[in-house]
Structure formats: C-alpha cells, structure tokens
Amino acid sequence: MKKLWVTVSVFILLFAIGCGKEQNDQTGESGVPDREIVISGKKWTEQYILPHILGKYIESKTDYQVEVKEGLGPTPILTQALKDGDIDIYVDYTGTGLLTVLKGNLKPEDTKETVYERVKTEYKKQYNLVWTQPLGFNNTNAITLRKERATELGVETASDLATISDQLTFGADPPFFEREDGYKSLVKTYGFKFKDTMDLDTNIKYAALNEKKVDVINAFTTDGFLPRFDLKVVKDDQNLFPPYYAAPIVRQETLDQFPELEKTLNELADKIDENTMAKLNARVDIDRESPDKVAEEFLKEAGLIQ
User: Fold this and answer.
1) Domains in the chain and their CATH numbers?
2) Which positions fall inside the ABC-type glycine betaine transport system substrate-binding domain (predicted)?
C-alpha cells in the first residue's frame, strides 16, 4: 500500500511539473505570454493599414508583442487561419461576415446594429471567434459624382439621382455590372435609366469622372479618391447596400491568453470614420506612403498613442 502511495505521489508531482513547464512555455516570469499576437488582413490598401493600427495600439497600451503579416488573403482564407490558430486577429466587415461566411440574408428590418449582433452571436457559437466593437466606419458600396455637379443638379440621395438619370452617363468596373447585388439591383431598387453606361477599370474610373467623361460612378465609401477628388457620395435612401462596418475578429483562445486584449481593442471603437479612413487610404494609394507609417501617424495625430 505504501509503495502504491509513493507511485501515485510521484505521478502527481511529475504531472504538476509538466503543467508548470507548459505554463512557463507560454508565459514569461512577468505573467505576459512570451509569444507574439499575429495580426493579418486582406490584399488591398485599407487592409494593409488596419493591422498596423491595431498592432501599434496594442503594443503602446500593453506589454504584448505583435507581429503583422500583411496581405494573407481574402475572407475565407483569413477565417480559416483564425480557426486554425495561424493568426490571432484580422479586421472584417459585418456584411461580409453575414453574407459570405455565415451565408445569411439581409432582412428588410436589419440595421447596422442587428447585423453586427447576428454575426457576433453566430461567430462565437459556430467558430468560437469574437467580434470586438466596430472601429466606426462603414465601407460599403456607394454611388458618387463630382460635388459641383451634385450641387448643380440638386442631388442628395440616390432617389434624387434616379429622377434625372436619363441625362447622365454611368461608369463602373465590370464586376459591378455583372453582380446581382450590383448594377442590376441598383436599377431594380431605384429605377435608374442612364442614357449610357461604360465599363471602366477600377484604376481609371475616378480619372474618367474627374475628367467629366462620365457623370456618375460606383465606389466604396472609404476609397481614397473620394476626398482627393472632392466627390459626393449620394445617400442610399432605400438601404440597398448592406452595412459593412469594420471590426477586429479575435480567437477566443487568444483573448484567454492575453486578458487585456479585448478591452484594448475595444478602446478603438468608433475612432475611425469613413472620411478618416478614406484619407488614410489616399496617403497609401496616391501619395505612396507606407501603411506602417500612415498607421502610426494616424494614432499619434488622433491622440491615441504618444
């Protein structure tokens, strides 16, 4: 009996040592995990900037270390990388989460708040992933024209524009004309009857608008060319386009390991509006500044870091 007790005691001691070693492998003497938080994003301008904003803010406000892996890929790849633990955080958009990942539908009564709550609830339930609070901006589809032209025509909303659309030429990138939720939905919802339409590559459609070769183009609400060319985004008064509010998504296991992380990310809630994000995008797209530099200067100018 004594021999059995000694054997059990040794087993318990070895188990405790093993657990302690596993804990020490993850956490340094200060209690701070000794691995980096990995942040990534998609392969376009805004998604190059946002990981650096998150990373620099986290490192400024906590003792955590961050690694930014730029441009990992589109939503399906990033979502899988989160599930697999290859990355810890990336920023996605509420409409993308609902329509692309969850394969849900936008309901007529949906608001930006209800869409956010739906994706937040389902991601936690299905994937154990956490949507933290939105950063503030809505990067959704939009219709835009030159401000002076909008003033001349008395246009504030898409419905206003529809009444005079037979006098105007509309330009858009080819995918917008092909998608069911693009030009076809725009015509169905608002009754647009443009006198002419033009396929325009994304890289030249803003120049075509600025040079008055077209009157109206499609856009995204945080495109960098909007503030640079002084363009007006007309109000989507029939709520055709889903809300695409940007928010960091984090693995629950990461939040458990880094207890200050969720609170820190939520401090960035509502700190970036559409105009601000568009200006940051313009600095990278047009001025050719680095996303890293633009992110750091934004945080300092906003008083978010020293």
Assistant:
1) 36-138+243-301 (3.40.190.10), 141-233 (3.40.190.120)
2) 36-301
